[in-house]
Design goal:
By secondary structure, this protein is an alpha+beta fold. The protein folds into two domains: 1-64; 68-163, Jelly Rolls, CATH 2.60.120. The chain is built from one helix and seven strands, in the order H-E-E-E-E-E-E-E. Strands 1, 2, 3, 4, 5, 6 and 7 form a seven-stranded antiparallel β-sheet that branches. It is rod-shaped.
């Protein structure tokens, strides 16, 4: 090979090297653009998913109220229920004798509080809705098992029913 052939060969190689570098850089650029587009697409999907999840959480928290937040105790002589939130009914049974009474103490702070006192499957001897704070007695005319039911609708308060 002559010197001119070697020089020409080096020039051709160097041209190929330059072309390879350009192609390589263009390939990297294309791959980078493709990855960026994919990344933007994934970020967009994640953003939409997170926004939808946030809406669901918000709607769930707005639509549901706590059923009960408070304390309740009861035995053979009383039923005591104090609540910051009552959105349900609780019952307690007392075995009563003829001539006894049930002492009722209600502290209504908000919402609606209802009370029912009923002997077995008979008509209730007392039923009150949207009760306000009060103290009163309910007389028992016949012996038997009485069901005391306290119901609340977004209610806050304290109800104590005591056998006397």
């Amino acid at each position: 090979m002559s010197i001119e052939d070697k020089d020409m060969s080096e020039i051709i190689e160097s041209d190929f090297d330059e072309a390879d570098k350009r192609n390589s850089q263009e390939g990297v650029s294309r791959r980078r653009n493709k990855v960026m587009k994919m990344g933007n697409s994934i970020r967009g999907r994640v953003s939409v998913f997170l926004a939808a999840l946030l809406v669901v959480v918000f709607l769930c928290s707005c639509g549901s109220d706590a059923t009960f937040d408070g304390s309740k105790t009861g035995d053979e002589n009383h039923f005591d229920i104090e609540f910051n939130m009552l959105n349900t009914s609780y019952t307690h049974e007392l075995e009563m004798k003829e001539g006894e009474s049930i002492d009722v103490h209600i502290e209504a702070q908000s919402g609606n509080i209802s009370l029912s006192i009923q002997k077995e499957n008979e008509t209730p001897i007392y039923r009150g809705n949207k009760l306000e704070s009060a103290d009163f007695k309910v007389g028992v005319e016949s012996s038997g098992k009485y069901t005391l039911t306290v119901t609340g609708q977004k209610a806050k308060g304290h109800v104590v029913l005591t056998r006397e």
